[in-house]
Write a structure and sequence with these properties.
Distance between the termini: 39 Å
Order of helices and strands: HHHEHEHEEEHEHEHE
CATH architecture of the largest domain: 3-Layer(aba) Sandwich
Oligomer: single chain
Number of helices: 8
CATH superfamily of the largest domain: Type I PLP-dependent aspartate aminotransferase-like (Major domain)
C-alpha cells in the first residue's frame, strides 16, 4: 500500500533538522543541495500512525509507558514469519535509540583500545560512538563500480589486525542507500567468522532476511552481552530493540 508519496510537504518552517543543517550547504558548483543525509522523509505518516498519536494526545495525560505484556512474543513471531529469524522474548533489550543500543554493544563486546571496522562512506554516528568509548575506528572504503559502491573483500581482510574486535554493518547502507546483495553479505560473514569475534548489524532489520537464508545463527556472530557491563536500568522510553542471546537486566 502506498500513502502520500504524491503529496509534497514542506518542513522547513518547523525547524526540521535535515533542512536546518543543509541551509548553507552547497555542492562543488555552489548550488544548494538536497538534504538526503538523514533517515527523515517529507511524507505524511499513514493514517494508522496519526490516529494512534491523536488518541494518545486526546487522553490528555502524557507519561512514560511500558510495552504491553504480549509485545515481546508478538515481535518474535513477526520476525519468524517475515524474516525466518527465530528469537526468544528474553533476548530483547529495550534501548532509547539505535545509536544508544550501539553504545551498549560496543562497550559490552570490546575493550578500550580495540579496533572496530566501519565501511566508508558511512554513518558518522558509528565513528562517534566508537571514539567516545575509547575504541579505534578502522575505516574500510567501499569500491566504486561506475555509479555504485561495492564490497572490497581484500580491503576488508587487509584491515583486520589482532586488535580488531567488531565490524558494524548498516543495511541499507547509510548514506548511500545501498542494499547489500546476498553474495556481499556472505563474504562479510565468512571474513568475520575467520578473523573477528563478532559483527553488529544495525539500522534496518531487513538484513536478517539475508542472514537467515545464508547461515544458521552463530554464537560468534551474536555473542551475549556480559551482565557486568550492561546498562544499569531500563530506558524510560524504549524506542529501539537490541537482540542478545542472554538476558542482561
Amino acid at each position: 500500500m502506498s500513502w502520500g508519496f504524491d503529496l509534497p510537504g514542506d518542513r522547513r518552517a518547523r525547524n526540521a533538522t535535515k533542512w536546518r543543517v543543509a541551509e548553507k550547504a552547497t555542492n562543488d558548483d555552489g548550488e544548494p543541495v538536497i538534504p538526503m543525509w538523514i533517515a527523515d522523509m517529507d511524507f505524511r505518516a499513514p493514517p494508522a500512525v496519526l490516529d494512534a498519536l491523536q488518541a494518545a494526545i486526546a487522553h490528555g495525560i502524557p507519561g512514560y509507558q511500558e510495552w504491553s505484556e504480549d509485545f515481546p512474543a508478538l515481535f518474535c513471531r513477526w520476525q519468524a514469519r517475515r524474516h525466518r529469524w527465530t528469537l526468544s522474548p528474553e533476548w530483547l533489550l529495550p534501548c532509547q535509540s539505535v545509536v544508544g543500543a550501539l553504545d551498549v554493544i560496543v562497550d559490552s563486546l570490546s575493550q578500550p583500545g580495540d579496533e572496530i571496522i566501519v565501511f566508508s562512506p558511512g554513518f558518522a554516528a558509528f565513528s562517534r560512538v566508537i571514539q567516545q568509548t575509547q575504541r579505534r575506528v578502522v575505516t574500510v572504503p567501499l569500491r566504486v563500480n561506475g555509479l555504485e559502491y561495492a564490497l572490497d573483500p581484500d580491503r576488508l581482510t587487509a584491515a583486520i589486525t589482532p586488535r580488531t574486535r567488531m565490524l558494524i554493518l548498516c543495511n541499507p547502507h547509510n548514506p548511500l542507500g545501498k542494499a547489500w546483495c546476498q553474495n556481499e553479505l556472505q563474504q562479510i560473514i565468512d571474513i568475520c567468522l575467520r578473523h573477528i569475534c563478532c559483527w553488529c548489524r544495525t539500522m534496518c532489520i531487513r538484513i536478517c532476511i539475508f542472514l537467515s537464508r545464508i547461515t544458521p545463527p552463530s554464537p560468534r556472530l551474536t555473542p551475549p552481552l556480559p551482565p557486568a557491563r550492561s546498562p544499569s536500568r531500563r530506558p524510560a522510553k524504549p524506542l529501539t530493540l537490541a537482540v542478545c542471546r542472554s538476558p542482561i537486566w
